[in-house]
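Dear Dr. H.,

I hope your travels went smoothly. While you were away I took the liberty of generating a structure for the chain from your last submission, since the lab meeting agenda had it listed for discussion. I wanted you to have the full record in hand beforehand rather than looking at slides cold. The sequence, exactly as received, is reproduced here:
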Amino acid sequence: MLSLKTQRGLIWILIPFIYGWLANRTGVIIPPVIAQVVFGIFWLWTGAYFAQIKGSRLKHFLLGNSVWALSFGLFLWQFIYTSADDRLLFLAGWSQHYMLAFLWSGVRLYRLIDSTLHGTHITLTAYIVMFVLFTLGFAWRILRDRSQNRPS
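The corresponding predicted structure, in token form, is as follows:
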């Protein structure tokens, strides 16, 4: 049985997907810079949240990135490994919901590499930003806890 904290964490990791799905269904999108800042802070906090759950840190890191990994895998399958003719539009669409709030940073960072914008590359960059932010929040919490538990 999952602890209450773990169950709560599973809800937190669904929020970026819910935002992307709602934005796609309704057409109501938070301005990209605001979405990036809000979700960036939220994703750092979510990483830190998973780091402080009792038990295996590796297990909680993987669990915290499980929806990300599933969505990222679907994206790779549909846009990298599948031709446009064989693409399943339903899965292709769903694979892009999760990183929607991070698209602004994906565009900005990708433009540092290439001035020509490629949607697939921008989406990959946005996914990487998500992973890095979660990892930074996770690592920050571990380091903070270690420094607080050190004897003076």
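Two observations you may find useful: The mean pLDDT is 93. The chain has eight helices and no strands.

With kind regards,
E. W.
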